[in-house]
Here is the input.
Amino acid sequence: LFAAVELAPRDPILGLNEAFAADPRPQKVNLGVGVYYDEEGRIPLLASVKTAEEARVRQAKPRGYQPIEGPAAYTGAVQRLLFGANSPLLTEGRVVTAQGLGGTGALRIGGDLLKRIVPDTTVYISDPSWENHRGIFEAAGFPVHTYRYYDPSTGGVDFAGMKAALAAMAPRSIVVLHACCHNPTGADLGEAQWKEVAQACVAGELVPFLDMAYQGFAEGIDADAAAVRHFLATGIPFFVSSSFSKNFSLYGERVGALSIVTGSRDEAERVLSQLKRVIRTNYSNPPSHGAALVADVLASSELRAQWEEELGGMRRRIRAMREGLRQRLEAAVPGKDFSFVTGQRGMFSYTGLTPEQVERLKSEYGIYAVRSGRICIAALNARNLDYVAEAIAAVLRG
Ligand code: PMP
Here is the structure.
């Protein structure tokens, strides 16, 4: 049975983590990770989450099955975060939300549902994109192509290239867009550009699929949902996958959601019935613990305020690390423009380092980064910032 089974390629980031763990050098730093680390270099357990969790453990509730689409207390909370607590969308009943197994699971059930609705279409992801986007939509059965996005000469977005790509797509093409904190580049669209992209999707009859894995990591909860709100204003149907892995620091609990904006209550009812079939045949219904924690935190005004404060702390720390890295690089490599470090948003930065420079960082300094030159800014802290900046400057000087 297994004689002809080939060994699949190793996940590049997990491979990096293994190499890092095996490195004996005490000064080593892992910038390849995709998680938020605090100033101590640890994954935080948020105090708001801890309080909600302790209360839940005290209640000692039985563990029955959840509704297929997840509990209403959770899906309602997701909708208020994405679309705004006062959005008429919520009272109109036009939006469908289902709990997903993290943002990844939300993308996948969205992909599977779309395969039933528009089986012969093409999916477009940004160039570059989070590497799993391609895998997820290919696994759902779609051909996956890229649209122009990153401009290495500016460290920002090639907006003219992106618009030209959108204009050339066939009607009903699915366009995966990073709603904020683009992974891997950190290069985001501005407000006016989002409006143009939304209009281009209307004009081209495209199916927008917004992926929001980092809400609250750029400017704040509402500000980071600006892209979602622009699409809402157009009135066209669209998909949103969202995740609490990062902003609640609940990675291993796998809490995410898929939201689908439809044209009417009747459409929403039919779409939900199909989405439930997709879920039912995948994993039947979602796990309860992580989603209950999120719902409990968001339902309590006290815990919600505490969470927003904690999220703000993560956001401010990332910004401080960006500032610190930029200042140090500017001082060490005069004449080179490092403004992209603070212009990019979220956990990641595309440094422009070549694969050879990334290799030197690893072999000479024990600093691990992704071959593309992506570094995780949230892995920097006051103890390693000088060392990392000096090492990057040294490899840049050649
Ligand atoms: N989308 C993007 C753009 C991401 O960066 C990530 C996480 N790295 C995800 C989705 C998936 O998040 P989750 O861990 O919640 O599945």
User: Anything to note?
Assistant: Residues 65-299 form a domain with the Aspartate Aminotransferase; domain 2 fold (CATH 3.40.640.10).
